[in-house]
Amino acid sequence: MGGGWHTLAAAGGSRRRGSAQRSRRLWLFIACIAALCALLSLFTYRGFRIQGLRRALAAADFGYTEAMITRQDLEYHLALKDDLSAIEDAAREQLGWVLPGEERVVFVDPVGERGGE
User: Fold this and answer.
1) Do 98 and 92 contact (CB within 8 A), yes or no?
2) Is 113 part of a structural domain of the chain?
């Protein structure tokens, strides 16, 4: 008694179910691979971004250190501006200023007079 169209339909139906199941597995596998690629690209992007931020932080830290050195130098020169002995020393050096009772002595460089021989 065998066969008939019922058996063929049942066999074809199982083939369809098997191919549908394989198709679902394939799509699930593709979706997992796509998700992994998305995560990998996201983490790579963030890693490069973190490296850039670290470089920017190092540059800012270097700039801050330079600014602090400049600030200390300016504070030193500002303190000298109000120091009377520093003002007197600068006037003596730059303007040739002498106190009463002192004599000014100027040394002439003999090499400079001969033309740099």
Assistant:
1) yes
2) no
- Domain range holding 80? 12-96
Q: Model-level pTM greater than 0.70?
A: no
| The residue count for the chain | 117
Residue 29 backbone dihedrals phi, psi, to 5 degrees: -65, -45
The reply to whether 103 falls in a domain is no
- Number of structural domains found in the chain: 1
Residue pair 27/35 in contact (Cβ under 8 Å)? The answer is no
Tens-digit pLDDT profile for residues 37-92: 999 999 999 999 999 999 999 999 999 999 999 999 999 888 888 888 888 888 87
Q: Tell me how crowded residue 11 is: count the other CB atoms within 10 A of its CB.
A: 10
Give the number of other Cβ atoms within 10 Å of residue 80's Cβ. Answer: 13
